[in-house]
Amino acid sequence: MQLIAEDRRITYSIVLGIPAMLIAWAVAHDQYLVRIAPEHFTEYHEPLWNISNPPTLAAVYAFGATIGPGLIMGLLSAFFGRHGEEPKVPVRTIFLGFLIVIAVTEALGALAGFVVWKTGEPIYPQRWYPDRTLPIAITQSIQITCYATASVASAFYCIALWMLRRRCNRRNGAR
């Protein structure tokens, strides 16, 4: 049984396109974090391949942190958006939906960072922060918020793809 009985290029474009979008966002995201607190990557992450340049280190960590989840989301997007007999969600709609997940994630992360910057206080329990400096409080709050938001938004995204297909199926008179 094939995952999707259609041209494999369509499946591959989804399975590889989603992680590509996620990696591009994560690298850009970490580039502004590293400018707020380079020590977020240089002191509070394990050394990596003798990379001493903080922006390069941030980019490598962004890639490593998102390739796995990106591939999983690519597979889930292909499955929920195109698998089976129900009408298939257009690839463009799948990508747009995932861009919305990224935008919501970044917006809430930035809002968390802004709140910490304005108040000077972390928004999560102090034990979640490796030190008490404001730059680390900002970057760590952004990261925690982004990880949590991305998890929840991705689940809603998969549900939305499934519901969209069911709604289109009912509209077409099946079941």
Domain module tally: 1
For the biggest sheet, the summary is: none
Helix share, percent: over 70%
- Report Rg: 19 Å
Give the CA-based shape.
elongated
Q: What low-confidence regions span 5 or more consecutive residues with pLDDT below 50?
A: none
Sequence of secondary-structure elements: HHHHH
Structural class, by secondary structure, is mainly alpha
Write down how many β-strands occur, each being a DSSP E stretch of 2 or more residues: 0
The number of helical elements comes to 5
Percent of sequence in beta strands: under 5%
Question: What is the typical, i.e. mean, pLDDT?
Answer: 91
How far the N terminus sits from the C terminus, by CA atoms, comes to: 23 Å
Describe this structure in words.
The chain is mainly alpha-helical and 175 residues long. The chain has one domain (8-171). It has five helices and no strands. It has helices at residues 8-36, 39-42, 54-82, 91-119, 134-171. Helix 1 (8-36) runs antiparallel to helix 3 (54-82) and helix 1 packs parallel to helix 4 (91-119). The longest helix has 38 residues, at 134-171. The chain is elongated and about 55 Å long.
